[in-house]
């Protein structure tokens, strides 16, 4: 088939969760399909990815992502029915026109859109559209606004969330088919629109890559948190971990240290490094190095639906996991078998201390998790499932 794929980021290098997903799916899907990729970029250096992407794509078109915070965008969002997220960053008349021209030149079988906020750029067409919802966006921003401190801005932010919710649901119905990362997200969408076809295409992991992880543990028991800090749920989780969970862990395991690893840390995240035995690292080139020196991954995720790559990667490297139910969402994890799952700071701290002090349980959990991810979540298997969805749609 000829596939036109549109992503809100350049898929390579695979640094964020979305990039990891798109890059690996493109790599595997290219064995059966011809792919034309349209993608947003932030700065010119990202275009250096062209050589790598052309290994798997017939054509790659880069579109400059506009700066979000401009008076025009803020004014437009206030005076129109469009939410700020769509107007400020992801709607591009140039992209829409470019896609229209491309569709007129080539005979495409399917349009694949990653995230709903790309959808306004798709012109009217009879070609089937697969919309992939990596998370349900308005729910993420809704929780963020509830906890936002500036009360005067909240009414405007809630109005924008209402717009976001309206448009997200509109594009659910406009797409020929939807794909989500988890059964929970599929169920949520079908409760709103029972008539919409939804498939679950989970996230995966590159087992060949993570099998090469070299383990060299520190003298100090090491707890690891991983997250890309442009993603609001990771900001929330890191702050929650350091301020509420970490002090309880230190009481139980005084010699423990915490590594908080992720790109684009805000000043607020950097300031978390002032806590005892907490290190903030944004310069990790190979994520396997920090998995290799860690005794447990702690993922206290409280917001954001969809599968968490940090959890799959830890499973692939043999690092035992402690997390919230949201951290395990979309993965067939059983508490006490593949990970330890808790809700409160006390539970998360207790389970982390258990992993750090009970080597036998840590080994049991990590082995079970590794077998699960190897059997179910390898990218080759995930791509095969998506390939079948493509065939069903067309």
TrEMBL record:
Family annotation (PANTHER family): SULFOQUINOVOSYL TRANSFERASE SQD2 (PTHR45947:SF3)
Organism phylogeny: Bacteria, Candidatus Collieribacteriota
UniProt keyword terms in alphabetical order: Membrane, Transmembrane, Transmembrane helix
Transmembrane helix is among the record's keywords: yes
GO terms, molecular function: glycosyltransferase activity
Record-annotated membrane-spanning stretches: 72-91
Origin species: Candidatus Collierbacteria bacterium RIFOXYB1_FULL_49_13
Ranges of residues in domain Glycosyltransferase subfamily 4-like N-terminal: 16-208
Protein name, UniProt field: Glycosyltransferase subfamily 4-like N-terminal domain-containing protein
């Amino acid at each position: 088939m000829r596939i036109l794929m549109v992503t809100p980021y350049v898929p390579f290098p695979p640094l964020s969760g979305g990039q990891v997903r798109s890059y690996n799916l493109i790599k595997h899907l290219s064995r059966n399909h011809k792919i034309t990729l349209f993608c947003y970029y932030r700065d010119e250096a990202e275009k250096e990815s062209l050589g790598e992407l052309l290994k798997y794509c017939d054509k790659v078109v880069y579109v400059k992502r506009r700066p979000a915070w401009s008076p025009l965008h803020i004014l437009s969002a206030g005076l129109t029915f469009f939410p700020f997220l769509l107007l400020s960053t992801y709607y591009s008349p140039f992209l829409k026109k470019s896609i229209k021209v491309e569709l007129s030149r080539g005979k495409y079988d399917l349009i694949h859109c990653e995230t709903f906020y790309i959808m306004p750029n798709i012109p009217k067409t009879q070609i089937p559209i697969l919309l992939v919802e990596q998370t349900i966006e308005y729910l993420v921003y809704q929780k963020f606004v509830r906890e936002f401190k500036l009360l005067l801005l909240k009414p405007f932010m809630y109005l924008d969330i209402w717009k976001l919710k309206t448009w997200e649901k509109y594009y659910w119905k406009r797409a020929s088919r939807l794909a989500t990362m988890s059964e929970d997200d599929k169920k949520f969408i079908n409760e709103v629109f029972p008539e919409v076809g939804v498939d679950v295409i989970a996230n995966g992991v590159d087992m060949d890559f993570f099998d090469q992880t070299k383990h060299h543990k520190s003298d100090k028991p090491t707890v690891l948190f991983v997250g890309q800090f442009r993603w609001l749920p990771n900001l929330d989780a890191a702050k929650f971990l350091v301020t509420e969970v970490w002090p309880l862990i230190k009481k139980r395991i005084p010699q423990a240290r915490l590594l908080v690893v992720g790109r684009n840390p805000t000043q607020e995240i950097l300031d978390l490094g002032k806590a005892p035995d907490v290190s903030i690292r944004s310069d990790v080139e190979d994520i396997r190095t920090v998995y290799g020196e860690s005794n447990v991954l702690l993922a206290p995720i409280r917001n954001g639906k969809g599968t968490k790559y940090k959890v799959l990667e830890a499973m692939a490297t043999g690092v035992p996991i402690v997390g919230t139910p949201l951290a395990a969402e979309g993965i067939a994890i059983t508490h006490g078998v593949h990970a330890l799952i808790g809700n409160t700071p006390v539970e998360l701290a207790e389970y982390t201390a258990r992993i750090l002090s009970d080597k036998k349980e840590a080994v049991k959990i990590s082995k079970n998790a590794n077998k699960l991810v190897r059997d179910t979540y390898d990218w080759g298997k995930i791509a095969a499932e998506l390939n079948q969805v493509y065939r069903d749609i067309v």
